[in-house]
Design brief:
Length: about 250
């Protein structure tokens, strides 16, 4: 990613976009044509190929948001502020998709789209905190003060990621245990289903990265445009208060 992008597209982003599209196609084919229904979950297991990767990649981008927020507070560089905003937006989109797919899975499994389960409740809280973060970034006021406040909100929000991830083990929860990574559970999958899940991880990582690069560049260009407008306004205001000089070099009253 260039430090000073002039457009939202490049050869690298086009290659990344093609790879993202190809990986999604492979995921769809593998999920519906190669893998079969689960012996316990039935056809609903296919939702997991989206649900599990999106929440994992959402965590990744939210952590990236926290790191960029810390770097902004240290360096006070607009680069890190824009990068934090871009990663935060992608994290919110992915976590929102996680909630939607979780509700679609919960209806046939639990008989309801939503229950106030520990995992669902904490995930919804995490989602709302990052919505608050994005809202903070759009509030009117001094840009530097707004950026500092948003960075603090981003860092605080990231502190909830671990409790959300561990909520199934810490509290009584209807939600199944971890499907991959960490201690094996009765819900663990293997074979073609596990392969489909890893394809999902790759696909959504590529898509999220492609979106993040473009969102960063849009934010960077918008930030530079706003700076130019401010500079032009300041210059115009100064010109109004400077005495006009005549062609003879005399100051006009």
């Amino acid at each position: 990613m260039a430090d000073h992008p002039e457009t939202t597209s490049s050869t690298a982003t086009r290659v990344l976009g093609i790879a993202s599209l190809a990986s999604i196609v492979v995921l769809v084919i593998y999920a519906f044509a190669v893998t079969g229904p689960d012996v316990r979950l039935g056809e609903t297991v296919r939702i997991m190929y989206v649900h599990v990767p999106t929440v994992s990649i959402a965590y990744l981008f939210m952590l990236a948001n926290a790191v960029c927020s810390v770097m902004f507070l240290v360096k006070r560089s607009s680069f890190f502020d824009v990068a934090a905003g871009a990663s935060g937006e992608i994290g919110v989109v992915l976590l929102g998709l996680t909630l939607v797919t979780g509700m679609l899975w919960g209806r046939p499994t639990w008989g309801a789209y939503w229950v106030w389960d520990a995992r669902l409740t904490t995930t919804a809280l995490l989602f709302l905190m990052y919505v608050g973060y994005l809202t903070m970034r759009t509030l009117p006021g001094n840009p530097n003060v707004r950026a500092v406040r948003a960075a603090v909100v981003g860092i605080v929000s990231a502190a909830l990621i671990y409790p959300v991830h561990m909520s199934v083990e810490w509290w009584s929860s209807l939600h199944q245990g971890r499907t991959v990574f960490g201690r094996a559970t009765k819900a663990a999958i293997a074979g073609d289903q596990e392969t489909a899940l890893y394809i999902g991880f790759l696909a959504f990582l590529l898509v999220a990265s492609w979106l993040a690069v473009h969102r960063f560049r849009v934010g960077w260009l918008a930030d530079r445009a706003a700076g130019v407008e401010i500079d032009a306004a300041v210059a115009a205001r100064r010109a109004e208060h400077e005495p006009a000089v005549s062609s003879l070099g005399q100051v006009k009253p």
